[in-house]
Every structure is written in structure tokens, then in C-alpha cells.
Recover the amino acids of this structure.
């Protein structure tokens, strides 16, 4: 299988904020889009962003412990991904996001930003890293990355 063309959104879901990134249809350039406050209206805002950007699919980071075990955040991300799939009608994939926030903090620190001044963009950078890893995995493996979420209305 070859790489599927189409713009994608990358999502880093946290308890307080949601980082959003997108890529171009060829998957060559991943860019930060926004940091949203988690809560009422967040899924609707992501659906609007997806609609405006003609998105093929949404990639949501799946937080696991370093050992690969599930955590409370894992279940939260799964529920959020399912809600996003229902709201957008788009395929949503969960991909392992271990260390994406750590990598984002390191990248910003290397660019001369301290943690406090980076807080507004750290989630966007983490979303960018999550999406870039998903694109790289699809290119190298020839199959779509992660786990496809099939939302079930309940």
C-alpha cells in the first residue's frame, strides 16, 4: 500500500488543553494550528477546524505509561476520540504518544524557550510530533498508523 494523500489533524488531548496540528495533503509539512481549552465546545471547535481544512482523518495521541500500560488518561483519550469521530464523521486513529510532551518541551527548550513561556504552545508542538510520527509510520510501514476508532452512538 502506498501513502494515502489528504490533510490530517493531529490532536494532543490533555485534561486542561488540547493541542492541534495539521499537515498538508501530501503529508510533507506538519504545522501547529491551535491550543484549545478543554471543556464545553471543544469537540465542536475541532469539528469546525476539520471541516475548514478538508481533513482526511484525525490522529489522536494515546497516552500510555512508559511500560505501555493503560492509565486514566488512556481511557479519557479513547472517549474523546470517539466523540470526535461522531462529531466529524471522519476516521479517527489512536497512536501511541509516549514522550511526545517531553519531546515537545525539549524542542522548545533547545529553541531557547523556558517551560513557563512555552506553556501556550507546548500542546501544539506535542500534536505536531504525534502527527509527524503517524505520517512517518504510515510511510515506512505502508499501512495506516495506530488503531482505528469506530464510534458507536450511545
Amino acid at each position: 500500500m502506498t501513502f494515502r494523500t489528504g490533510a490530517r489533524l493531529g490532536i494532543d488531548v490533555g485534561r486542561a488543553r488540547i493541542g492541534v496540528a495539521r499537515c498538508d495533503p501530501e503529508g510533507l509539512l506538519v504545522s501547529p494550528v491551535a491550543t484549545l481549552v478543554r471543556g464545553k465546545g471543544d469537540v465542536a471547535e475541532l469539528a469546525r477546524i476539520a471541516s475548514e481544512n478538508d481533513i482526511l482523518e484525525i490522529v489522536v495521541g494515546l497516552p500510555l505509561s512508559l511500560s505501555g500500560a493503560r492509565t486514566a488518561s488512556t481511557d479519557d483519550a479513547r472517549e474523546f476520540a470517539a466523540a470526535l469521530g461522531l462529531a466529524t464523521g471522519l476516521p479517527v486513529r489512536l497512536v501511541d504518544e509516549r514522550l511526545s510532551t517531553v519531546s515537545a518541551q525539549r524542542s522548545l527548550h533547545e529553541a531557547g524557550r523556558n517551560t513557563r513561556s512555552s506553556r501556550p504552545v507546548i500542546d501544539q508542538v506535542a500534536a505536531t510530533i504525534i502527527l509527524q510520527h503517524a505520517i512517518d509510520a504510515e510511510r515506512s510501514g505502508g499501512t495506516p498508523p495506530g488503531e482505528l476508532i469506530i464510534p458507536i452512538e450511545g
In short: The chain has a mean pLDDT of 86.
